[in-house]
Amino acid sequence: MGRAQRNPSSASSAVLVCGPARSGKSEWAERLAHESGRPVVYVATAREDPEDADWTARIEAHRQRRPGHWSTLCVPTDLETALVEHDGSDQCLLVDSLGTWVANLIELDDTQWRERAERLEAVVEGCRSPLILVAEETGWGVIPAYPIGRTFRDRLGNLIRRLGPRCASSYMVTGGYALDLSLLGEPIS
User: What is the top-level taxon of the source organism (predicted)?
Assistant: First the structure.
């Protein structure tokens, strides 16, 4: 990307951008993709639902913000395959978002989920193309009252924790700032 890679122990050139809802994480990721100077493939994990006006408006806001020359892939579940198929090109791949991908796969049992998460980790680690991953931070509030909410929070939190050290840099976007965690923090083993 346009910025220096920060994590010398990382085998990947991927960048992780995480933060709470409405923090600006997608805009920061889009800025990094633009700064890469490469054609951008926006890998959208959202499923469109014409019955949900709010969700449709959110998807449209993302579309309107992106440059028209960026290409878009709609990949609600088969993210690993899409990344492998587009790896090695001169393109920058921007995945928005891992939280939506996790939600789309919430019905998988623990073994199936673990296999998918491990496959994604391997793809991220081996990716040769510039790759930017956007992820929501969900575990900072009240413990969800329902099992499916706890499963979602735990799966996404664990995925982010495992991907962060595999990425060249990780950003936390909050309070109007993008903080480079790779410079400010120490990876947890």
Answer: Bacteria
- Annotation says 62 is catalytic: yes
- What CATH number did the domain enclosing 161 receive? 3.40.50.300
Within 10 angstroms of residue 37's Cβ, the number of other Cβ atoms is 10
Asked, for residue 147, whether it belongs to a domain, the answer is yes
Residue reference for tokens 């014409």:
50
pLDDT at position 4: 46
Residue 121 phi, psi (nearest 5): -55, -45
Amino acid (one-letter) located at 171: Y
Residue 161's domain comprises: 15-176
Q: Which of 34, 62, 69, 86 is catalytic?
A: 62
pTM of the complete model? 0.91
**Burial state string for 46-83 with b = 16 or more CB within 10 A and e = fewer than 16:** beeeeeeeeeeeebeebeeebeeebeebebeeebbebb
